[in-house]
UniProtKB/TrEMBL annotation:
CDD domains listed in its UniProt record: ACS (cd05966)
Domain of life of the native organism: Eukaryota
Lineage: Eukaryota, Fungi, Dikarya, Ascomycota, Pezizomycotina
Keywords: ATP-binding, Ligase, Nucleotide-binding
Family affiliation: Belongs to the ATP-dependent AMP-binding enzyme family.
The species this protein was found in: Coniochaeta pulveracea
UniProt name for this protein: Acetyl-coenzyme A synthetase
EC number(s) given by UniProt: 6.2.1.1
Amino acid sequence: MASQAPNQVPKAPVVAEAHEVDTYHPPQKMLDKHPSKPHLSSIEEYQQLYKESITQPEKFWGTKARELLSWSKDFQTVKSGSLENGDCAWFLEGELNASYNCVDRHAFANPDKVAIIYEADEPDQGRNLTYSELLREVCKTAHVLKQMGVKKGDTVAIYLPMIPEALIAFLACSRIGAVHSVVFAGFSSDSLRDRVIDAQSKVVITTDEGKRGGKLIGTKKIVDDALKNCPDVTHVLVYKRTGADVPFTKGRDWWWHEEVEKWPSYIAPEPMNSEDPLFLLYTSGSTGKPKGVMHTTGGYLLGAAMTGKYVFDIHDGDRYFCGGDVGWITGHSYVVYAPLLLGVSTVVFEGTPAYPNFSRYWDIIEKHQITQFYVAPTALRLLKRAGNHFVKHNMKQLRVLGSVGEPIAAEVWKWYFEVVGQEEAQIVDTYWQTETGSNVITPLAGVTPTKPGSASLPFFGIEPAIIDPVSGEEIHGNDVEGVLAFKQAWPSMARTVWGAHKRYMDTYLNVYKGYYFTGDGAGRDHEGFYWIRGRVDDVVNVSGHRLSTAEIEAALIEHDAIAEAAVVGVADELTGQAVNAFVSIKDGNEASDALRKEFILQVRKSIGPFAAPKSVYVVPDLPKTRSGKIMRRILRKILAGEEDQLGDTSTLSDPSVVDKIIQVVHENK
Ligand code: WT7
């Protein structure tokens, strides 16, 4: 039994808890309007099941895997391997197919049920797809990929905006055993190129253009640019979204609508071993090069289905709306897999919360009578600021309001609860990562009491540990602070970094032996509730997007005029954190607004617009130790206006640079 299991009697606080906050119980009105009742009857039932999931993981997960997923061949071994060895595997011998689980079984039972509610960028241009239509489209597209030479185990790069065809592409890949590698359609051609090469993808799927917030995005052009340096790509499948006149490379580029027409509407799903890879998703780490996080089939799907069922309390008639993009893990798990595995309707929203105006989310929720809504706090901050008059809607069906990707401030939490949810929906602040596959610390809607700002309690199978980063020892008991790790494997954890298992071990499993290290700081309060404090590594979180400072620095120094660069994240009212860059320039260059703009453009070009620094400070030199290590701590303090708290600067090779940097920051603020 875990020593900090949340069901133990809370100990008397050791330290006065900084978060004396109200506890909110699942709203009675939410229970009153529930179509039946939440999947769990009480917090005690959660505690009992949680205990079983930790002490008897094989019994717990074996039962759930057979209950929620359809296996073409049953498994015998629920779990093998260890965190120490980095060889965790689940449901060995078992065989299943992701697209069968997401589509076929619902298409047989309920062919006319809506699978996808497509809300196009323009409010009146969407459409619905039923499960039987989805099955047909997935099968036809699977044929096309096969015809292009895609085989079981091959990766396929998907560079698509938020349209139904993105989901069709995911599922077409999995149907034939191909591994999808989705690249967010906001990434630049250079980033796309790096991911295509690293994943060794030979096929890329894209659109002629994308449309978002009334603006056009030249997706095909970006793909063309990227592929100039990807000689191994043999085929590009292009979905016609806008009808723009785009150049076609003969023999390589194919129109989606012309190709799918040639094929029958059924193809048998490929039986996959539970541990066969389902997808790669690149994410940023502490070093410059993005990691291709690999998820496998059985465990990942179970994590998505389980959290969909228990965290979001999904029931048969629900209409689920996750505002995340399919280019990130949130979209993978909660636009695509969780709702489709559970056979409900999922919204695919192409646009932005601000177009045509700040009511767009609420319009969608009202129009489709959405039951669960899931979004990042950055969008909520924007909408809260826009004003409550945009939120005057009938959203009576809402039972669950999810938050994801970054800490949610108490006042935003309360606004979400009171103004959006009318105190009739439960807020679930879900903590997780690309690597965890699905929610790991989170309330269960209808069950868990919540405190604004806390992600609350661990999900089934997650055994959190707070570790003292200095000693590396686990800190037991409540009212403690440290870094967050997990001491048991769970089904949906990433299995490796594509082509770099050592990097996987060193980043997650070798930091504290026997634990999975999250990279986040966290506290556990007097009642065993978890409070996520943010990253303890060089990862910044801008609008819920994870960026590596090292990656942005690497992009900056590609510019001819830049000698050295240091990037830090600073608190930002709207985006949570913002990227600020300090650069020193080479002799013969003059600091100017035009040059600073060029530097920002450089980052947009090499990574993507979402990574662009908010400010660039051109300084004579960076604060470095004698061994040449840049002291980013000093830069963070200066930006926070804490110049009097710089700490020891005597280890700097030239302490006088500090005053010069302070001067530049003041002049440019
Ligand atoms: C990092 C993971 C997981 C989906 C989106 C981001 C931060 C995530 C929360 C939360 C506070 C959160 C962490 C984590 N984070 N959820 N509820 N409260 N912080 O996925 O890009 O893999 O980033 O996002 O710092 O490590 P990601």
